[in-house]
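Regression test case RT-17, inverse folding.

Input:
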């Protein structure tokens, strides 16, 4: 477990500034970071040194929002907006995961893809089926990645072939699933799909489970204009979409809560997400693909709200979080707000999203030692670029670089 990595370390501090340590030694002891040094301190001289020469070493990336069953259809069916897209393409795919054999085959492809990607930690939606969600969790546990995984709850406004028959069934299946989740690095998370597909009684019961099992929650919020209108129609007396989750303790007030998208959150909702420490999962390529709009991430950052990035597979088309960083910058540049910088998006993909998991996403003292070793020599042939330029070019040109090693909490996955 104890080792030293040598290379060019780049990460961010709490203020979203880059920390750059050229030709340095990163010490990992019992899975935790013991510091980045110019020379190996005497007390660590017995540790094995893995010399990665001129490679870049950055924190593992954290994907705060994606759907495992949608991996098989990523990149297809982007010809409609959210609600039609769900009905036309997504629910017919997710229903297939009632078949455990099918789920095993498809989920092993998903886990192989995630393992090979730059992601070391992820927060994942499964389907409404408890058995196949457990199968997904078994495969993830074997991979060495650290994840949260949710069995999805939905009991209304959905096709009869893909909906739970009652609140009682939804809750008893969720409890049966929770009772079988005995993994170390693969943890359950409560997962109401979104307000349109969950009755208030179901949300209420899920809030109780959150409390009794001490769990976190993930859902979708304010992604699309028609979706927000539908929520208003369904709940004419509520102040906002966020207020509905909040009413049932599903908006950060008890445990941690991740809300994906947040494109159309009002100022009051942004305030509430700050007050309740809600995590926003910004999913820019999904927002482009489904023509949803541009999330006001600059406003969330300025308010001090936790923001991470999500690929939102399959509304997003790729597991590569470097693409999300690029998309986030590009979208911000065509919005009316101050554009996001490389530092902003690098922070969101590492330290910002990482804080959902604990001390994760940087090489600070006692942070979990999650590291990616990346060979960018293909795009630095003459060695003319500074390390901050090399980071920027890695982000934009990730497919021309080689991910040669991935460590999660000190464990080398490849
Ligand atoms: N809202 C409710 N379900 C989904 C989903 O599967 N993907 C996205 N992008 N938004 C959703
Ligand atoms: Fe999603």
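Golden output:
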């Amino acid at each position: 477990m104890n080792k030293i990595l040598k290379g060019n370390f780049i990460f961010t501090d709490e203020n979203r500034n880059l920390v750059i340590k050229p030709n340095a030694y990163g010490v990992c002891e019992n899975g935790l970071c013991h510091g980045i040094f110019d020379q190996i301190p005497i007390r660590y001289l017995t540790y094995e040194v893995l010399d990665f020469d001129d490679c870049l070493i950055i924190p593992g990336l954290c994907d705060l929002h994606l759907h495992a069953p949608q991996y098989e259809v990523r990149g297809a069916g982007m010809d409609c907006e959210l609600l039609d897209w769900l009905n036309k393409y997504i629910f017919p795919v997710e229903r297939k995961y009632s078949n455990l054999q099918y789920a095993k085959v498809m989920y092993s492809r998903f886990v192989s893809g995630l393992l090979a990607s730059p992601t070391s930690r992820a927060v994942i939606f499964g389907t409404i089926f408890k058995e196949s969600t457990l199968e997904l969790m078994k495969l993830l546990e074997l991979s060495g990645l650290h994840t949260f995984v949710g069995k999805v709850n939905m009991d209304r406004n959905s096709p009869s072939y893909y909906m739970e028959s009652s609140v009682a069934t939804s809750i008893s299946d969720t409890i049966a699933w929770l009772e079988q989740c005995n993994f170390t690095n693969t943890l359950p998370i409560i997962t109401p799909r979104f307000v349109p597909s969950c009755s208030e009684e179901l949300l209420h019961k899920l809030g109780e489970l959150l409390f009794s099992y001490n769990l976190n929650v993930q859902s979708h919020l304010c992604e699309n204009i028609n979706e927000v209108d539908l929520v208003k129609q369904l709940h004419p007396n509520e102040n906002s979409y966020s207020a509905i989750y909040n009413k049932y303790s599903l908006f950060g007030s008890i445990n941690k809560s991740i809300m994906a998208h947040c494109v159309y959150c009002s100022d009051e909702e942004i305030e509430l997400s700050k007050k309740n420490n809600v995590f926003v999962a910004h999913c820019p390529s999904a927002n482009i693909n489904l023509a949803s709009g541009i999330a006001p991430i600059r406003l969330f950052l300025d308010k001090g709200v936790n923001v991470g990035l999500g690929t939102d597979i399959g509304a997003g088309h790729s597991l590569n979080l470097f693409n999300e960083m690029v998309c986030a910058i590009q979208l911000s540049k065509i919005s009316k707000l101050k554009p996001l910088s490389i530092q902003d998006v690098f922070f969101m993909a590492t330290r910002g999203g990482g804080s959902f998991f604990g001390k994760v996403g940087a090489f600070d003292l006692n942070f979990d030692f999650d590291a990616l070793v990346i060979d960018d020599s293909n795009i630095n042939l003459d060695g003319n670029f500074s390390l901050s330029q090399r980071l920027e070019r890695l982000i934009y040109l990730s497919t021309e670089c080689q991910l040669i090693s991935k460590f999660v909490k000190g464990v080398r996955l490849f």
